[in-house]
Amino acid sequence: MTTFVEIAVNVPQVTDVFHYHLSVELEGRVHPGHLVEVPFGSRQVQGVVLRFIERPAVSETRPVTALVDPLAVLTPAQLELAAHLAHNSLSPLAVWIGLMLPSGLSQQVDTLYSLAERPGRRLVKPLTPIQERLIRLLQKRGSLRSRQLTLALPHVEWQNAARSLVRRGLLTTQSVLPPPGVGPKTVRMVRLADSPEAVKTQFPRLGRAGSTALRRRQAALSFLLQESDAVEVTWVAAQTGATRQDLLKLAELGLVEVSESRAWRDPVGVLDPDIAQALSIPPGLTRDQQACWQDIQRGMEAVEREAPAPPYLLHGVTGSGKTEIYLRAVNLVVTRGKQAIVLVPEIALTPQAVQRFASRFPGRVGLVHSQLSPGERYDTWLRARAGELDVVVGPRSAIFTPLPRIGLIVMDECHDDSYYQSDPPFYHTREVAIAYTRLTGAFLLLGSATPDIVDVYQASQDKWHYLRLPARILAHRQVVQTQSQRLGLVPRFQPLEGQAETMDLPPVKVVDMRRELKAGNRSIFSHALQTSLAKVLGQGQQAILFLNRRGLATYVFCRDCGAALRCPRCDLPLTYHGVLRDDGAERLVCHHCGYQRQMAAVCPACGSQRIRQFGTGTERVEAEVLARFPGVRTLRWDFETTRKKGAHALILSHFAARRAEVLVGTQMLAKGLDLPLVTLVGVVLADVGLNLPDYTAPERTFQVLAQVAGRAGRSPLGGEVILQTFQPDHYVIQAAARHDYGSFYRQELEQRRRLAYPPFTRLVRLEYRHSDPIMAEAAARAMGERIQGWLEAEDRRATQLIGPVPCFYARLGGLYRWQIVLRGPNPASLLHGRTWHDWRVELDPPSLL
């Protein structure tokens, strides 16, 4: 009997599923979750089997042609999750399935462009500049796929030019399905093939007497005589100097055996044994921690009895011991034979998190994030799929790791914006985690010092379980006393309970920069910050200077006509970065698309030479520190300095090892870092982002200020925070200075209620992009009229249509942006069953910019 299957094909913009049948060769080998190859039109494409079906929807089906991987690439729970997300996000199912597969394994059909063989043909119509670039590129490199052309011609719309060349017969195209770009890693191993006694008798006959080849081969055998098992060929070569030809000769003589062996690429690496030993011992819990843990434990035990549990929100101030609660929750599920996913907001925090969990669960922790090599991600995915890992740690992409026995999802710093995927398919990791735990019966634990207003409101309505950790835990008494003696200090801690010591959150001094200007201080540092920084440096301690802007100057403008130098593709002000290349020229950079140009000598609008830089960024902050404190060692932690793999961990390790006294950075600094010698945090400009026309701007500003303030005073040294601002009376600044989340929550919630924003309504944002501003506006207005018609036809009086209007950032990457916002109790329900090929649709977006 023929077996029929339903398959989601990996083809962009295809939203339907399709029915196929299994060939005789694949009967019994293909099951739901398998990655296969199937014919789709005239092309071969990949797809994932969703389910078996009794009767196909078409009279004649085509066969599944190949099985890409003998094991299922998705678990049954992942298939359910993908279907749930596709329905709720209005995105194609195949897009969600693609997120769950490791980079390189899943492949989309591509188009191969080649030069046509038409020697000597005269061109009737001249080529455009883009067409000429395409021809030269293909002449130089040979045939290229679409993705290769996009990489070779960044920010160039080459597709129309290529189609024109195909029509004119100058290019040919062919559909191709690239093979998987990643696979298992193997290494060559060598071992003795005979007894040690027999091998030793062959030493004189391994080469010409006195030759270097003889010495190398004897050394290789002597080395292998000391090994009880096979050794990597590269290791033998490194230890003895033996070449590949030497080992092949020994194999010909029957003295050694060379074989291939599977090697795992493990990004966790080897931990420092002293640190691992210290972190492996669970500390005692305080009374507050114990109360929270008992509550969580009861919830986890209820889930074990198949009783559903709501999400648990752990609201603890910075340094209150949330991580120890996470570790105990993970330990509980692991001892019961299940697995856990631990999510952190940034790659920068992953090394610290991995170190803590790997020390507590040695050999059982996997690491997932985008800066790993495809091979490292693939091997972690394989081990997770096989059930060989108990814990997976990583940012938002780790939620899609195929753990077969998932029992717990932990989401640290759950308020953070980086948990939101801002490119299609749009999703918030928190919502994915909620859906996933409901489907699997797992337990969801969310933690933050500054949780989202919507999350706390959910808890206040008894939809979530809410727990508090109000006290900062400095350390345990013995550790505090050791640190104090080493530093020669009388510590300012207070006994908490048991062996735990505590210290209040650091005092925050708000400096009114308007008064500084009136007093004649034109520096970016207030007198108070300069004084405190000098004191900290004089005492051999460390400081963090925070500014959520990169570069030396925020923008460059003409003092005569006021024109600002902007990115030609984004219309955003260019940021001045000084000399970035070996040519010695000062450069301007667009932080959205990466466009660069040299610093202008004259104004392009009026020809004036009075071009000046204005504002400040992290590079200027670093330069000011070096100018005011000659000889001080600084590190900068922002996007520019962390592009390379491993840069986050390297900068953090240098600072923790006291190779620098001052760390300057952007919001990366605000997230979970534990640096005991930091006694001063200076917020250079607290107003950044506060006045953006977005309903979440006050909340995001409060969160980042409260988080960065928590980096100070995490040791017996104590600490202070200096917060510089031009709006000292703003309720966000005041609440952050008092570490007063409750006050901020009440005021901001009332603002949201008054303006009818979440949590009192829900939002859907639709965005249209086009390179032609007239086309962008026309399409947006036409869609607005269609949606207004749907609202009237369905009598949706509770749903409000806002727009269409240009986005705040009206042009990005050469594309003009228009948006429509729907606000109401359930605006997404209006859009189900409709197609949105050219629109970006976001449900409950965290920003409307």
What report would you give on this structure?
By secondary structure, the protein is α/β, with parallel strands linked by helices. It has seven domains: 4-99, 3-Layer(aba) Sandwich (GIY-YIG endonuclease); 110-176, Arc Repressor Mutant, subunit A; 185-263, Orthogonal Bundle (Arc Repressor Mutant, subunit A); 282-474, 3-Layer(aba) Sandwich (Rossmann fold), CATH 3.40.50; 508-550 and 617-755, Rossmann fold (3-Layer(aba) Sandwich), CATH 3.40.50; 553-615, no CATH class; 762-843, Alpha-Beta Plaits. It has 25 helices and 39 strands. The strands form ten sheets. A seven-stranded parallel β-sheet has the order 15-16-14-17-20-13-21, sandwiched between helices. Strands 5-2-1-4-3-6 form a six-stranded mixed β-sheet. Strands 25-35-34-26-33-32 form a six-stranded parallel β-sheet, with helices on both faces. Strand 15 (365-367), helix 14 and strand 16 form a beta-alpha-beta unit. The longest helix has 21 residues, at 773-793. The protein is globular and about 90 Å long. Mean pLDDT is 86; it is low at 476-484.
Features of the shown structure:
7 domains, 32% helix, Arc Repressor Mutant, subunit A, six-stranded mixed β-sheet, GIY-YIG endonuclease, alpha/beta, 849 residues, 39 strands, seven-stranded parallel β-sheet
